[in-house]
Write a structure and sequence with these properties.
The chain is an all-alpha fold and 37 residues long. The protein has one domain. The chain has 2 helices and no strands. It is elongated and about 35 Å long. The termini are far apart.
Length: 37
């Protein structure tokens, strides 16, 4: 049951990336910049 939950999250992440790649892309970039600083 836990494995399925993980799979669902992975699929959701991909779906969101395809639906709003611009929103997720900058989000990740901001995190990267903060980490680098």
């Amino acid at each position: 049951m836990r494995s399925e939950d993980n799979f669902k999250i992975s699929l959701d992440s991909i779906s969101f990336d395809h639906e709003n790649p611009i929103r997720i892309r900058p989000s990740f970039r901001v995190y990267d910049e903060q980490s680098f600083h």
